[in-house]
Specification:
By secondary structure, the protein is mainly beta. Helices cover about 5% and strands about 20% of the residues. Keywords: Plant defense. InterPro entries: At4g27190-like_LRR, LRR_dom_sf, Plant_NBS-LRR.
Length: about 240
Amino acid sequence: MLKHEQFLRSLSSFLVYGCPLLTDSGVHLEAERATVWDVRLSAFKDSFKTSKQLLLSDIENYNLVPEANEDGLNGVTSLQLKHCADLECLVDTTATATKNGPTSAFTYLETLFITKMPRLEALCKGQPPQGFLKNLKHLFVKECYKLQVVDELLHNREKNQEHLLSNLQSLNLCDLPELRWIFKGSPHSFTFQSLKDVNINRCRNLKSLFSPSLIQNLVLLEQLGIHYCDELETLFADPEMMVK
């Protein structure tokens, strides 16, 4: 494998589209913007160390860390995932995926856009690495048909996770037919002092938005939009108090 320092020093972006037989790029491609569409991520192993904007579509991987990058993709600030039918999570720290695992992952990610991910259940399987999504500001989730509770997407029912989403400013959820609750876990696990904009569209089985115990954290909320949620019964209610 050639080292990128030898040439391509001015490369600022690269796009590879529709090359399903490509298995080895032959070089570490380092660029601030990277788009990989219908290509095996193994062809670009460790090629995203300097990428800040990453768009992945129609990839066959089950996770991004460690399959695509073992260092945790900590430099990425904007991540778009589309039409990744096999992707189950962003990071897998379970023993079946990696023995040592990354010490940190997606530490500086600010914007996360996810659409058409039928198998996605959690952003992290196993205990999240240090700093996981601690700087996330914008979350957009669309057409993830297995998703029932947003907080389960974030932490996969793992315990001992404090202060999730403390920097989240906008939350957009669209076309999630199985979504019943947004946040169903312990109110002590989430802080929303930065949340300003919430938009919910066509989540037909959604029952409630937030529990009353979380209202006190929504001090900066400026916009709340709810559209075509046929089963919505109340805006604020404890899931345990509502009839299933």
